[in-house]
Amino acid sequence: MSEEKTWAAPTASDPIDADVRVPGSKSITNRAFVLAALSSGETLVREPLDSRDARLMLGALDVLGAPSTETPDGVRVRPMTDGHGQTRVTLGNAGTVARFTPPLAALGSRTVHFDGDPAIRRRPVAPLLHALRTLGADIDDGGRGAVPFTVRGHGGLEGGFVELDSSASSQFLSALLLSAPAFARGVTVRLKGKTPSEPHIAMTLDMLRRFGAAPERDGSEFHVPPATLALDTYTVEPDLSSAAPFVVAPLLAGGRIRVAGWPAETTQPGDWLRSLVRELGGEAVLDDEGLTVTGDGTVRGAVLDLHAVGELTPVVAALLCFADGPSEIRGVAHLRGHETDRLAALATELTALGGDVTETEDGLRIRPTPLRGGVFHTYDDHRLVMAGAVLALRVPGIVVENPATVGKTYPGFVTDWERVLHVA
Ligand SMILES: O=C(O)C1=C[C@@H](OP(=O)(O)O)[C@@H](O)[C@H](O)C1
Ligand SMILES: C=C(OP(=O)(O)O)C(=O)O
């Protein structure tokens, strides 16, 4: 991770011609760790992400009674065992840790305090805490409905039927489903309203099945019966959302890039980038070697609904600043509750560099204008570092503030980006 407080992100002086391999998926890694902790035997998680969020998840599981060991083959996670007394889970600003681990605490007998960065205290969690209480959990949040809160474990969770509003974050639903096989009666969740990030729900269901559970879905109703989970080995795919800045680079700089190891089939939202590239005028070819993207340095303007793939918004917004016409991003009001208020941050930072970017009720309106160099503030948000890098491809003099914050999901990002642009 860079020790610099700012990063003079490189401009593309030539068309890109590079291969890149991005680290493991945050979403898959942290699900695999949770499911491994809930399993009856040890699980080897191969090619996991090693980043702040992944380490926070392992730290949380450790204090909850599921220790892990790093080996040359990957991370070995041991099954969770019960304990007593008080303990503390550190959340950082990891949504997956804040949402996926409280149900685990309710399954044990410890009293577990959850807290993290100031930013995580502002992120939504109340509907999940409410649902967990309905399912039998004892949670003290001081009436705030937010981090910090305390889960007092009483040795198990009854489970059963619950209604859930998961419109602020799909992670509420994933959290209940992931732990449900260990609830005495499993869980039946009926969704009120629409959840964002549908691919992440599909990911949760798919991974539950791989670990031996039998989740069912009927529209907005989900059922997970009790089950004993077990899986010897789980291999994590590369993170296709971390690949986003590399995938879009040829559209801005021209040339080609190959992202190695792009899966032929996946539940990751980043797979949508293939159709985005084509819609905006580039080419994307998937074969055994990975995904090869070519572009000629032009980008078409577009109206895009990113409700299902919200985490891609910062990079896509940066890209659309260089389109041949106006664009709009819709369906992402929930990004106001992400690492930072991403809609406000993007509108503020892009406008400060000369852009014409305005917030709408559920997204951003982007009218391409010439941009100038300057400081791009990143609000402790890894994906804003990636957005700043994308902008700099075409705008000399962009200085990205606090690049190290990208270590939430991609500690080697700056090094890999500079190598791709031949400045390393
Ligand atoms: O389940 C997951 O792993 C995630 C779900 C999404 O959260 P939201 O539904 O809160 O956007 C996504 O944005 C986040 O990066 C990871
Ligand atoms: C929203 C994100 O993260 P988190 O897992 O903290 O919710 C993200 O990575 O874009």
Automatic annotation (TrEMBL):
One of its GO terms (molecular function) is 3-phosphoshikimate 1-carboxyvinyltransferase activity. Residues 12-416 form the Enolpyruvate transferase domain. Gene3D superfamilies: Enolpyruvate transferase domain (3.65.10.10). Its main location: cytoplasm. Pathway: Metabolic intermediate biosynthesis; chorismate biosynthesis; chorismate from D-erythrose 4-phosphate and phosphoenolpyruvate: step 6/7. One of its GO terms (biological process) is amino acid biosynthetic process. Pfam families: EPSP_synthase (PF00275). PANTHER family: AROM/DEHYDROQUINATE SYNTHASE, PENTAFUNCTIONAL AROM POLYPEPTIDE. HAMAP family: EPSP_synth. Catalyzes the transfer of the enolpyruvyl moiety of phosphoenolpyruvate (PEP) to the 5-hydroxyl of shikimate-3-phosphate (S3P) to produce enolpyruvyl shikimate-3-phosphate and inorganic phosphate. NCBIfam families: aroA. This is 3-phosphoshikimate 1-carboxyvinyltransferase. It comes from Saccharomonospora glauca K62. The lineage of its organism: Bacteria, Bacillati, Actinomycetota, Actinomycetes, Pseudonocardiales.
